[in-house]
Amino acid sequence: MQTLDNSILQSELVPLRQALQTSLMTKDLHNCKLTDLTEIMLPMDSLLALFKAQGQPVLAAGVDFINDLLGQIGTEAIPAPTGLSYVLNLYENLELAMDAWCQGEDAAAGFAPVLAKFKAMFEGPKTAQAATAEISEEVLQDLPNADILEDGSVGDFINEVTDGLQSVEETVMELEAEPGRRELVDAVFRVMHTIKGTSGFLGMPVIGKVAHRTEDILGEVRDAKRTLGSNVFELLFVSIDTLKNLVDQMKTRVEGGSAEPVNIGKFYRTLQICLDNPSGDMPDQAWDMVSAEAGPAETAAGTAQPATAAPALGPGPKKAEPPRKAAKIEEMLKVSASKLDELSGLVGEMVVALSLLTQNPVMLDLGNRSVNAQLDHLDKITESLRDKVLGIRMFPIGSVFSKLSRQVRDLSQKSGKKIELVLQGADTLVDKSIIDNIYAPLMHLVRNSIDHGIEPPEERAPKPKTGYVTLSAQHLGDAIELMIQDDGKGLDREKLLDKAVEKGLARRDKEYTESEVFNFIFLPGFSTAKQVTDISGRGVGMDVVRKTVEQLRGKVITESAKGVGTSFRLKLPLTTSIIEGLVVSVAGSRFILPILDVNQTITPEEQDLKGFQGHENEFFLLAGETVPIVRLYELYHLTPKVVDPAKSVVIVCNVATKKYGIMVDELLHRQQIVIQNLGERFAQVKGITGGTILGDGRVGLILDPVSLINELYSHKKHIES
Description:
Elements: H1 6-25, H2 34-53, H3 57-74, H4 80-102, H5 107-121, H6 128-134, E1 138-139, H7 146-150, H8 153-177, H9 182-201, H10 205-222, H11 230-254, E2 262-263, H12 265-276, H13 284-291, H14 337-358, H15 361-366, H16 369-392, E3 394-396, H17 398-415, E4 419-424, E5 429-431, H18 432-453, E6 467-476, E7 479-486, H19 493-502, H20 514-518, H21 541-551, E8 555-561, E9 565-573, E10 578-586, E11 589-594, E12 598-602, E13 609-612, E14 615-622, E15 625-631, H22 632-636, E16 649-655, E17 658-664, E18 666-674, E19 688-693, E20 699-703, H23 705-712
Parallel strand pairs: 4-6, 11-20, 15-17
Antiparallel strand pairs: 1-2, 3-5, 6-7, 7-9, 8-9, 10-11, 10-18, 12-16, 13-14, 14-15, 16-17, 19-20
Helix pairs in contact: 1-2, 2-3, 3-4, 3-5, 4-5, 5-9, 6-12, 8-9, 8-11, 8-17, 9-10, 10-11, 10-12, 11-12, 14-16, 17-18, 18-21
């Protein structure tokens, strides 16, 4: 061990360390430029020469490795923020080694293992045989050490990798459509490189190794040593799925849950095929082996987003240009979703409190212009604050659309059909609660379009062999409309009706409208598939669609033309926390009906009221259609002010394909309602989905017409409209 001469310490080492401390600590990790790297690398070169001259090969190797990292950052092989975090971490350990050296201790003893760990992140076996030998078929990852778990870096890593993999999946989809865009290869390479390095540093070697093997293949593509073909794309998609599963497993373990082992054998088998076939073409037997392992990746929810006129169901549109991301990247601040929900709730309380204040009789009788002006100003500020908070909860529906792009790609291969997915309105903003819940319904609708709608290529004549599935989103006033449209064979009305009769859901002697027949497909267990496949056929998916959309206070409209195609339109509220509603009165109680469910309001004429078997005024005629009258006071055992429908107000609502009239004493006004949860005590009250505090301080109960009417008529099945 060689001791450092004190003169060298004072004249060379101290100034170099000070220069490095200054340059490393003052760099903006988000905006690092090549000139910044030069300011770091120049003193590093001087430090390297000093270590070599003083016989410190291990410390010299550390400086060499730091310079290599800086070079990769400069060439954008590693993103600057991630790469510089490695540099800072390694340099901190080098500082400790230099302190030991200055004190006459063995500097290499503590630094050598750290350097080896960092180097291991960027090295690995070059053959699938060696890689497979490292990890078993199924793995249950070990948790990182306590220090890493406590500082929150694992949670940040999981969130960043989840976002990164979603971005990679979209990029690979673009790359598969345009293999010549090599900048997309670089983009995927950088994400995999980042995942590899960070996971290794945090003590997640399985994730790091999968990312590293994928990076190796991408590196060969970048260096023109490998053709970008079907085997590489298959590896990339399998790698994405495997990493997603591993990250989900780690998240479950960190949160204290019971995680299942992740099978990573498919990834290594696909890697072996890639290494054995550098030309890029995957042999048929190899493809069969990989494809047989598992179907398309599914989420837990599926474990498995315009004008008001009817959509044109014609030939598929031309292929859309791939979306281009904006050059400007805004700085993002991560906030817990629960905190955002709390803030939204507090703003709702503020709206209610202000409404109570402004409608207080004392304030109304005050008559002070200055006070009223201040109240008006406060009202405008509160309304603006509410809109801003709601805006924070709004996200582009494109995050859901991109997941479905992968579904279509995988299902197209699995079904043997040529299918093109066209996305429209991906930047349409919707509430976070809808984003979180709408994927499963859309996924089931897309699956059914592919399995039941789009014909095999040989059966599509005279239409093009490639089938089109269009997924679009647009705002319609206070609602959002999502549409899934295919150019397949359309729904067979007679076949659907036969199946409904067979299951006892319909009668042969009754006439059904086209809409009524189409809505049979949303009933539990209803399926016309001759055999069950792993894509569809169990009659479960469409029931999930209907229930989920109804829970989100929306509705599904089905339109189809035989031989032309089918479309499903989902009408949903923009937000589930504030709704536009009609405030009505029944027996002195206040109820709110969501505007989205209201067709019209009417006071029936005496001559239009009809009855049956001794029951008077059970229906009324509206444009030639009989509309059953729903009496809220019967359901909730109230004493109404009005019992004669001809003297009441009837709110006509659409439930499925039928109209029902909800009879109330009085229509009060229309207003925006802040929805409040009523708690478990009211969970069993049928037809009520929430409550709110009205401007006069009274409680208003929010009605759900669908569950309300189903409950009221469950014991009146003899009533037919």
